[in-house]
Each structure stands twice: as C-alpha cells, then as structure tokens.
C-alpha cells in the first residue's frame, strides 16, 4: 500500500483476506539474522576476537538451533576447533567476504594449484545467473550456451563462460551473441578482481601453474569438494532420484543445469524449492575424490551415511589414494 500511493494515486491489490491479515500474518517480517545462515556472522565475530558467541548482545538474538548449525558447519570445514576457537584455516577464511564454503574452497585451491580458476568460478557464483533465455529465442540461447558446456557440470561451464568473456574483443557484442547478461558478467569481473586482490595480500596463498587441462579440472573439483563436501548428493537405489548426504532429502538437478547425465555423486552450490527441491550449480564428483578429500566424512568404514551410499563408496575405495 505504501508503494502504490508513494508518488501518485494508485491501487493496492491484496492477495489475502482481511481475516488472514489480522489472524495469520506476523506483526512484522522476521529479521534477516533469524532467517539466514549464521556461519559468516560467527566466523567474522571470531576473527574480531569475540569468543563467547552464545552470549553476544545481538540486536535480534538468533535461535540456539541456528547457532549450533553454524558452529557445527564451521567445525566440519576446519574453521574452528573442538573448543570453538578459530583455527589458522578459519582465520584465513575470514579474510574473504564470501560464504565460508566458498572461502574454504579458495584456501584449498592454492594448495591444488588452481587459485585463479576457482576465484573466477566463485565470482560467477556470486552474481545472478549470467545465462539469459528470452522467450522469443529460447532455442538460439540454448545453442549459444552449449559453447560453454562442460561434461562435468555447472562449475566448469561457468569457468568456460568467464574465460571466453574475458578473452573476447567487444564484450557487449559477445554477450549479445551468446545470450549472456553483460551487467552480470561485468559484476563477476569486478568480484574476481576484489577476491584476487585479497588473495594476493594473503602471503599464505600461493598458486602454482597447473598446465594440463585434465589435471586442472580434477584440481578445481577437489578444491570445491573441500568446501562443499557436506553439500553433496548421491543416487538412491532406484537410480532415479538424488538424496543429500546431510539430511537424506530427495532432490533433483535443476532443469537449467549443464550436467545432463545422471552422475552417481554430485556436488551442489545451493538448493531451491519450487514445485520440488532442486540442486543449483551441480558438478559430477567421482566417489573416490570424496574419500580422498573428506576421508572422515566419506570413508565407508567411518561414515554415517545410508547402507546404499556406503556400498557405492566401498566400490570406489580401491581407486582412492588413502589408507584403508
């Protein structure tokens, strides 16, 4: 109602009854801190020297469950120790103004010699989806986007799109021809510059050149597994649906994904719920890579996953470069 009459007379159409408004809707919108993932807030406070997070004087205190989830996730990522104190890795992660999953991937990428590539992908993940698909040219857009497609999935496809954008001559013309949002690509370029600048200032982050392209794709996926090993899903026994490893939720790969085949295991950036729960930005991950990178979480003898997931991991164990 405030918008409709702000600068000139207007009409406000309410999509609910007066009874719903008076009896069911909350007095005001819930504060963002209550609805958000608190992991970024917690790691920032830890970096600032606030050790007692639970009794910190928040303007709107978050629920204890949200706080425990954030602390648990940071512990799994190696950002805090068993006492809840910030680790060396956690201190490095706090230097980057991105989600802890992403900052953990940046730290890992330096060790896997793919820092520049991972920063480019994270820049693309930090902006709205750059691939446009107008109604009047859906087939042409799909055909243009296939130039960037990687068989491994969305993360490497985003990297291909960013590389092509940076290397092209006229960026405006390139975006028009390949149905990319020029505004979002410029924004991604800006984010990449900022992250690269932060990485250069961090003396602990050094990346070596990784010449072989096949080795590079493996290194990039390993770096993302280090940050997102809790955000993976595997095919169920029927082979038709995916189950998330964290809460056994049934999910599907988003229709817009570049990952077209049913990989046994996938890593995803986030889930969105529309008519069903979808994984956005998914990449195929071999199970042996999960065992190698997150041994505590995925070794079939130690993991707390379903019997079917353990069976798949046990099959992959001989290919993994870890001690049984």
UniProtKB/TrEMBL annotation:
SUPFAM superfamilies tied to this protein: P-loop containing nucleoside triphosphate hydrolases
Helicase-associated domain span: 69-159
Origin superkingdom: Eukaryota
InterPro entries named among the record's database cross-references: DEAD-box_helicase_OB_fold, HA2_WH, Helicase-assoc_dom, P-loop_NTPase
Keyword ATP-binding: yes
Catalytic activity: ATP + H2O = ADP + phosphate + H(+)
E.C. numbers: 3.6.4.13
UniProtKB keywords: ATP-binding, Helicase, Hydrolase, mRNA processing, mRNA splicing, Nucleotide-binding
Name used for this protein in its record: RNA helicase
Organism: Durusdinium trenchii
């Amino acid at each position: 109602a405030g918008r409709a009459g702000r600068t000139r007379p207007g009409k406000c159409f309410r999509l609910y009854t007066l009874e719903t408004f008076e009896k069911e809707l909350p007095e005001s919108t819930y504060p963002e801190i209550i609805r958000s993932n608190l992991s970024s807030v917690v790691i920032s406070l830890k970096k600032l020297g606030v050790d007692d997070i639970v009794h910190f004087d928040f303007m709107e205190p978050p629920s204890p469950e949200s706080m425990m989830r954030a602390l648990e996730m940071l512990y799994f990522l190696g950002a805090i120790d068993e006492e809840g104190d910030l680790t060396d890795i956690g201190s490095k992660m706090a230097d980057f103004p991105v989600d802890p999953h992403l900052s953990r991937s940046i730290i890992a990428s330096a060790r896997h010699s793919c820092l520049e590539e991972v920063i480019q992908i994270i820049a693309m993940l930090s902006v709205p989806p750059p691939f446009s698909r107008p109604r009047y040219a859906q087939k042409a857009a799909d055909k243009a986007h296939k130039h960037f497609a990687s068989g491994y999935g969305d993360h490497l496809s985003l990297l291909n799109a960013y590389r092509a954008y940076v290397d092209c001559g006229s960026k405006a013309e390139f975006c028009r021809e390949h149905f990319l949002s020029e505004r979002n690509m410029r924004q991604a370029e800006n984010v990449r510059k900022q992250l690269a600048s932060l990485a250069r200032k961090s003396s602990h982050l050094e990346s070596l050149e990784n010449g072989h392209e096949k080795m590079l794709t493996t290194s990039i996926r390993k770096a993302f597994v280090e940050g997102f090993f809790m955000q993976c899903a595997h095919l169920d026994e029927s082979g038709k649906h995916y189950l998330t490893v964290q809460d056994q939720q049934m999910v599907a790969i988003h229709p817009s994904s570049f990952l077209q085949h049913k990989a046994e295991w996938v890593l995803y950036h986030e889930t969105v719920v529309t008519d069903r729960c979808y994984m956005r930005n998914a990449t195929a991950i071999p199970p042996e890579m999960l065992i190698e990178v997150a041994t505590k979480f995925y070794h079939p003898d130690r993991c707390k996953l379903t019997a079917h997931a353990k069976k798949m991991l046990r099959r992959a164990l001989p290919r993994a470069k870890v001690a049984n």
